[in-house]
Specification:
By secondary structure, the protein is an alpha+beta fold. It is built from 6 helices and 15 strands. The protein has 3 domains: 46-57 and 248-356, Efflux pump adaptor protein, beta barrel domain (Elongation Factor Tu (Ef-tu), domain 3); 60-93 and 215-246, RNA polymerase II/Efflux pump adaptor protein, barrel-sandwich hybrid domain (OB fold (Dihydrolipoamide Acetyltransferase, E2P), Beta Barrel), CATH 2.40.50; 94-211. Helix 3 packs antiparallel against helix 4 (155-185) and helix 3 (93-149) packs antiparallel against helix 5. The radius of gyration is 46 Å and the shape is elongated. The model has no long low-confidence stretch (mean pLDDT 83).
């Protein structure tokens, strides 16, 4: 339409038609390019994109809590396992022997406790006998003093009665101490009749049973097995890494956006992303959170901008993006894959142009 109008206005001027026709075409091209550039600029402000992003997931190390020889390994590399599945088993024979010893120790302690109770009962009877002799010695000594005053008995007889009293006192004290010792050995000295030795043996039995339960290692959650470094017959130590479990269903994206890009990024915003491994497929997710600082601030050697010559470098801020499992039902995404996430901030072209207005 523009070309026809120009041709009609210049129909009477020879040579000018081609000239203005070219100018009109150039004008249309400039307008189209400008419109495309403006559209791309607006989209860059409403759809925040970066190629510095990777898939991450928790890597759960699998190790043994006891040492021993591996009897069975029931998983292979890259195998999917469910929570509670048996991964490997350690030879249980040594630990069953420990349980037998601990159980025997409980029986011995209970038998010893029964014998010590009998000793305590015997010590109690001996104490009653010593107390009776003591009471009789007191009566005999008091009666002897009265008879001595009446000169019925001799001084020698009174001395014998005094000596018998002293012996009875010593025997009574000895019987009391024997009873205390017997009650302590039998566990009757404390309230409630706590038999410490029996309880100690039972605790050792429970510990042995617990050690036996550690010979079977189960998956703590759903995931894929990786880094398996154990085979049947291997002699392992407690705490030794045996394999790793990667729950890909809980994977996320760490996108390192430039600090100028995160102005309008907020948790909860929708994210579309593509993966280099699967061209043509688009996955979805949402912004989970933004890191409290830049990646450089938490590096092993953070920059010291106050020293030396300062050169400004655009920093990147890690943004955590959760993956919608419905868009990846088969868990195609793996840890470390490169992705290109695009955050849909929800802003419109009007919002972007309003910021460019110098008279706002």
């Amino acid at each position: 339409m523009v070309e026809e109008a120009v041709e009609k206005s210049l129909a009477g001027k020879p040579g000018n038609g081609k000239k203005y026709k070219g100018a009109a075409i150039l004008l249309v091209i400039i307008i189209g390019v400008s419109w495309g550039a403006l559209t791309m600029f607006i989209k860059s402000k409403t759809h925040i994109e970066t190629d510095n992003a990777f898939i991450e997931a928790r890597i759960v190390p699998v190790s043994s809590r006891v040492s021993g020889t591996v009897a069975r390994v029931l998983v292979n590399d890259n195998q999917f396992v469910k929570q509670g599945d048996l991964l490997l088993e350690i030879d249980q024979r040594d630990y069953k022997v420990q349980i037998a010893k601990a159980a025997a120790g409980v029986g011995v302690a209970e038998n010893e406790s029964g014998g010590e109770l009998l000793k305590a009962e015997g010590a109690g009877a001996a104490l009653q006998s010593a107390r009776a002799r003591y009471d009789q010695a007191l009566l005999d000594h008091a009666r002897g003093e009265k008879l001595f005053e009446r000169e019925v008995i001799s001084k020698e007889q009174l001395d014998r009665l005094t000596t018998s009293k002293r012996v009875a006192v010593s025997q009574l004290k000895e019987a009391e101490e024997s009873l205390k010792r017997a009650r302590t050995e039998a566990g009757l000295a404390n309230k409630g009749g706590n038999r410490a030795r029996v309880l100690q043996r039972k605790a050792q039995l429970e510990e042995a049973e617990l050690q036996l339960s550690y010979t079977k290692i189960f998956a703590v959650k759903d995931g894929y097995i990786t880094r398996k470094s154990v085979e049947p017959g291997s002699n392992i130590q407690a705490g030794q890494p045996l394999m790793a479990l990667v729950p890909l269903q809980d994977a996320w994206i760490t996108a390192n956006y430039k600090e100028r890009q995160i102005t309008y990024i907020k948790p909860g915003q929708k994210v579309d992303f593509t993966v280099d491994t699967f061209p043509g497929l688009t996955f979805s997710g949402k912004v989970d959170s933004i890191m409290a600082g830049t990646g450089a601030a938490f590096s092993l050697l953070p920059p010291e901008n106050a020293s030396g010559n300062y050169v400004k470098v655009v920093q990147r801020v890690p943004v955590k993006i959760t993956i919608n499992n419905a868009s990846d039902p088969d868990h195609l995404l793996r840890v470390g894959m490169s992705v290109i996430p695009t955050v849909l901030t929800g802003r419109t072209g009007k919002d972007v142009l309003k910021e460019l207005n110098p008279f706002k």
